[in-house]
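Here is an idea for our session: we take a single protein and study its fold together. To get us started, please write out a protein record for me. Start from the sequence, derive the backbone structure tokens from it, and show both lines together. Go ahead whenever you are ready, and we will take it from there:
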Amino acid sequence: QVPLVESGGGSVPPGASLRLSCATSENIYNNYCMAWFRQAPGKEREGVATIERDGSRTYADSVKGRFTISKDNAERTLTLQMNSLKPEDTAVYYCAADRATYYGCNFALVYGEKRYGLDYWGKGTLVTVSS
């Protein structure tokens, strides 16, 4: 198992911003595609955003224009900047990574992780958006 440790979750009002971070190993950070998924209570886990080894990004329609996925080389962390948060964004957010030998992490987001599963997962961080 490789370490994937999320941080930055919390409780905020609608319209607020929050920044999540995911720390990992040098090998994972440099050679794997990475992603953010989330799971709301009573719902299936869904893809939020992915970043490939070449830096290309893919977002779920529900977060386009509001969320930004990026990598901070100085801290070797994957980040998710979330703006204009809505109650519907309430969920446990998970950091994930994959070797992407044949397909990128974007396939897990677009077609589902059951068909294109990712290799490694963190334990998650809770984000609650409410008045």
User: Anything to note?
Assistant: The longest strand covers residues 91-98. Residues 65 and 83 are 9 Å apart (CA to CA). The chain has two helices and eleven strands.
